[in-house]
Amino acid sequence: MKVSKWIAMCVGSILDWRGLVRPTAQRLIGSCTLVVLVMFNGAAAQTDEPLTLNPDVPLTYTVQPGDTLWEISALFLRDPWRWETLWAGNPQVDNPHLIYPGDTLRLVWESGQPRLVRVEQGDIKLSPSMRASPLDLAIPAISRQHIEPFLRQHQVVEVATLDRVPYVVSGDAGRLISGVGDTVYGKGQWDEARSYRLVRRVEKLKDPVNGEGLGIFVSDVGGALLQEDPADGDTVAPMTITEMREEVRIGDRLLPVTEADVEPFYQPQAPSEIITDAYMIAVAGGVTQIGVLDIVVINRGARESLQVGDVLTIDHSGEQVKDPVTGKQVRLPDTRAGVLMVFSVYDRASFGLVLEATKPLSVGDKLSNP
Questions:
Q1: DSSP characters for 43-69?
Q2: What's the CATH fold of domain 278-368?
Q3: Which residue in 148, 271, 312, 348 has the fewest CB atoms around it within 10 Å?
Q4: Torsion of CA 244, 247, 250, 251, to 10 degrees
């Protein structure tokens, strides 16, 4: 199976939940528990544009154990997030998300446009048959639960919100750091919640274009439970640490636990609007070079119509060089360096998962519509 380099790097590292792992995955994932199993949705903004097939695209392909929809899509299409258009109008495939190992896919042309159909049993033998394959054997889609650990570890919080929530004022017996089972004392204005997440400031986010504050990038360090209902007003209350990712410290903030809407699937797609002046402005984990499966912060969010599942290309800014004829400085064109998918959107910022990195990426790289 001939697959583009970034698919071999990114989607080749996908685990299906039956435990099948491709060799490329073992090199890429290491101890990472992220499972990237993708399903697709066509982009409204690009629906009318002709599909572009990859060079040397096969006319048929037999689905293999461990394949994913994204990998198969990238085998045929230059823009794999346009999978839905490739399948459009094919009664043989009512639900392209239910494809099984052993299925044979055939590339055909209808009115001059490429279409992908599944070879039915009837095309091979005339006797009627009924498929009785369990759903869990179908080529899998990306489930929210596989990326949720990353969502719990990173948030963007408004400055005003972080300033008014309670914080750890002391550990038991004057301890400076505390762990699971220890008592800590929180101080502040309490609401009705009894369960809280302990978060720590990572950095203040600023728009590199206009200097606007976009919120505070925080990391989740654990959880705590109130031991008793605190009195009204600004008061100190004992809490028990129930979970920790790092040692709990004096000054860590306490965000009340709230239920959030959880989407069952990610559906990679081109943005519905043109995204301008977008940049990678921070990275999780404190790394200096950004690569495949790293999480980055973007200076664009819901107010710019960015949505979960939107795919953006990553571009290196062109260097400035001296024109040998005129002696003036000339900026070279931007060069494409990768692709990311937005998976969590806040009002003025978002988180993205890097899917492709053809060269080392860094904070400050531009983002644009694919």
A1: -GGGTTSPP-BPTT--SEEE--TT--H
A2: Thrombin, subunit H (2.40.10)
A3: 148
A4: -60
Name residue 272's amino acid.
Answer: S
Domain boundaries, the chain: 5-146, 152-256, 278-368
d(CA 112, CA 102): 28
Give the helix/strand (H/E) hosting 120: none
User: Do 40 and 70 form a contact (C-beta atoms < 8 A)?
Assistant: yes
pLDDT digits (tens, 9 = 90+) for 25-38: 333 333 333 333 33
The strand pair at 278-283 and 234-244 is best described as: unpaired
What does the block give as tokens for 191?
């609401």
Q: Three-class SS of residue 320?
A: strand
Q: Please give the structure tokens belonging to residue 300.
A: 């664009």
pLDDT over 70 (residue 4):
no
Picking from 135, 183, 166, the residue whose alpha carbon sits closest to that of residue 236 is: 166
> In whole angstroms, what is the distance from residue 185 CA to residue 170 CA?
5
Q: How does DSSP assign 82-102, residue by residue?
A: GHHHHHTT-TT-S-TT---TT
What distance lies between CA 9 and its chain's CA centroid?
Answer: 16
Q: What's this model's pTM, rounded to 2 decimal places?
A: 0.66
Q: What angle do CA 287, 9, 87 make, to 5 degrees?
A: 125
Nearest to 227 by CA among 287, 145, 172, 269: 172
Q: What is the pLDDT of residues 264-284, one digit of tens each?
A: 567 778 899 999 999 999 987
